[in-house]
Amino acid sequence: xxxxxxxxxxxxxxxxxxxxxxxxxxxxxxxxxxxxxxxxxxxxxxxxxxxxxxxxxxxxxxxxxxxxxxxxxxxxxxxxxxxxxxxxxxxxxxxxxxxxxxxxxxxxxxxxxxxxxxxxxxxxxxxxxxxxxxxxxxxxxxxxxxxxxxxxxxxxxxxxxxxxxxxxxxxxxxxxxxxxxxxxxxxxxxxxxxxxxxxxxxxxxxxxxxxxxxxxxxxxxxxxxxxxxxxxxxxxxxxxxxxxxxxxxxxxxxxxxxxxxxxxxxxxxxxxxxxxxxxxxxxxxxxxxxxxxxxxxxxxxxxxxxxxxxxxxxxxxxxxxxxxxxxxxxxxxxxxxxxxxxxxxxxxxxxxxxxxxxxxxxxxxxxxxxxxxxxxxxxxxxxxxxxxxxxxxxxxxxxxxxxxxxxxxxxxxxxxxxxxxxxxxxxxxxxxxxxxxxxxxxxxxxxxxxxxxxxxxxxxxxxxxxxxxxxxxxxxxxxxxxxxxxxxxxxxxxxxxx
Length: 498
Description:
It is built from one helix and 41 strands. The strands form five sheets. It has a 23-stranded mixed beta sheet that branches. Strands 28, 29, 30, 31, 32, 33 and 34 form a seven-stranded antiparallel beta sheet that branches. A four-stranded antiparallel beta sheet has the order 19-20-23-26, with no helix packed on it. The protein folds into three domains: 3-305, no CATH class; 312-407, Immunoglobulin-like (Sandwich); 414-497, Immunoglobulin-like, CATH 2.60.40.2550. The chain is 1% helix and 55% strand. The protein is elongated and about 100 Å long. The protein is mainly beta.
């Protein structure tokens, strides 16, 4: 049966709709449910007003050429053909589960308080003409935790209207346009593109914003100490540009993510939102939360203050054994005010010491390669050595690389290391002892003038053994000497208590 709705729904509607297979049931607010086989048509110029939610079961059909206005949720498990407008006008969070829906226009005018004025869209949805934001936030996630990120897509010719602070799309918003280079193209999701005469074919811009997720909605540096705005744009084109292309990015204050509009801004590009990032164009003012820059390669774009999100684009860092030494190599894709790298090592992965310093390239858009050799790995007296880079800017800003490790070959003879060393007077000290033979060992402790202060004995097996240095307890500030003897071999270590 097909029912045509030509007037606004009123108190008689529940009885009429029930006879047509539509049931009105109280669920917090009234929910209108279409049972299987039911069909409802809203004609052009008519409005179906639902004070509550609307559900269509499998096998039910809702055809809308006018306006369907709801204060509650819309759950479609049947067929929803909406060449007209869907208007979500609640006063608290609403959900639109689209199912197999065709939607021309969608408007959000939710009057709820901040944090309770969202329209959740938990599954992919295409809007063909307009997405209008009057009040409230659209969020392309389900309302629960752990929900998957969906995409709200506007097909070619579709546009977003009314975005501003407190009313925009949180999550993934995708817009498609044909770009022939004849004029600038506004994708209406915060990105405009001027291909300057280049025919790029179909260009798809997918914006991810407002999620506060590193590597998803914002970029950050290798150490995670600096970050960009909470908005990234992924730009793909049918044909790659062959010359400079001008891009303008815009955002709302909600997505500043620590950005300071009073300082110079920088446009950044990466292959994915996880980075690494490379600067594009020159730093410029973005006091109006809008930045224009030129680039020759499309990809994922974002904005930050000029020192963020990645002063140095570290594309690789490796550590390997070269004979008895450690060889460290790393490479950068670009550098911004990079003063130098400090190479640090650790025997336990917790306490790092400075090995040396390598001068950086300053500011450069070119790739650079570096290396450093750590001689005689056996001196660590541990089966594994940990390495990291500390990158220092010209203004003193620091960031750290990921940690890399190198396996140390078993050295002949006896090798002893104390850590931490130097150590606080109250700190526990551990010995790492490497030997190539089994047998008892004796440890002697002397002060700076050679007086013996203690003696400790233990058994050793081939390989590396860790041994708490109980003799270190209660030692005053000063320099001490440890002598370890095993068979005919011995090792002397200087111990400093601070």
